[in-house]
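Good morning N.,

You mentioned wanting to compare the apo and holo forms, so I went ahead and generated the holo version with 3NM. This is what I fed in:
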Amino acid sequence: MAADLKDCRLYGIVDLSYITAAEAPRIARAMIEGGIDLIQLRGKGHSVEELASLAAELHAITSQHATPLIINDHAEIARMVNVEGVHVGQDDLGVEEARRIGGRSLLIGKSTHTLGQAKAAETEGADYIGFGPLFATPTKPNYAAIGLADIAQVHREVNLPIFCIGGIKLTNLPEVIAAGARKVVIVSGLLQSKDLAATARAAKQLLSASDNRNSKI
Ligand code: 3NM
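and this is what came out, ligand included:
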């Protein structure tokens, strides 16, 4: 489907460290209701079988709304379930390898934590990057916050859709946008909010009201 990532502003993650697999379909529906543009399934420490089965269940929901579903880490799941993409980290599969294992046309995203890694991901052929963690976050412990200072430069120098990530909440989103972010991933800020759909809608509104929207990607 090669979803038009340039139109995607808000990326949500169904992260099994915050919710149970049984809750995941309800969460995915709330994300869609809130206008989230891309959904990832992330289950660090969960088995491939369990993730593949949950991915199939979530894909039955996301595909009805043409919301791309991205699987974290496990490119082999893209052979079992018609997910739209795979997201890899710095210590995981390379972009090409993820594409090869997936065996078909897929969106491949890559986590990057420095300007250099962001440029390398572009050279490597990633379709989009995550850039962070902007703030320290319990969702990805052991990673130092990179702050907001490089956001403008990464947007100038890397010609890919860039999703800023890490510790982003509704409260600090205006500051993140002011630093130059156009697209963000929010995990705990959505999964721990009382009304996920309302929080997502509010975040979308902030993102689309920003004047960064003039950008091409
Ligand atoms: N990747 P929250 S930060 C999954 O910088 C993830 O690559 C990051 O969760 C990176 O919104 C992160 O709860 C956690 O901080 C994002």
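The chain has a mean pLDDT of 95.

Happy to go through it together on a call whenever suits you.

Best,
F.
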